[in-house]
Design brief:
Length: 151
């Protein structure tokens, strides 16, 4: 209600669709950013585990897996600790080794709930996670809107 009072408009549909619902908001975000002279730039993730193999890591632990990715197909599970990449021990993030071996099938040795197992990641020429940046455009009208927005 605070947002509605401040903006002087009804946000029922917005909250139903985007906050409480699952409607994609990409187009709305792009349109809003463009209005104030900004653009959303999407690029493949710079992290090898995210970009090529479809999983996000927190340190050496698997945190989330993209559907139908090499990581999901190999059976990598959330919470698995990656202890080796192609038989090379790793205690931190596996990204450097995954980047090094990205052109071939990669064997991960993982500790999965106290059990040591090996999983094989097969590349499939897909990119799974993206990186986003917001950049400012150089248009007089949009720059004016931007100044009003941030002040």
């Amino acid at each position: 209600r605070l947002a509605e009072e401040e903006a002087g408009t009804d946000f029922t549909n917005f909250f139903s669709n985007y906050i409480l619902g699952t409607k994609p908001y990409d187009d709305l975000l792009i349109e809003s950013l463009e209005y104030v002279g900004l653009e959303l730039v999407k690029s493949p993730s710079p992290q090898a585990c995210e970009r090529y193999f479809g999983f996000k890591a927190e340190g050496n632990k698997e945190a989330i897996t993209a559907p139908s990715s090499p990581a999901e197909k190999a059976g990598l599970m959330i919470g698995d600790s990656i202890i080796a990449v192609n038989n090379i021990a790793t205690t931190g993030s596996p990204n450097n080794w995954l980047e090094y071996f990205k052109g071939e099938t990669v064997k991960l040795t993982v500790n999965s709930n106290g059990f040591i197992k090996e999983v094989y990641l097969h590349l499939d020429n897909e990119s799974y996670y993206s990186s986003y940046q917001i950049k400012q455009k150089e248009s007089e009208k949009e720059s004016e809107n931007y100044i009003h927005w941030v002040s």
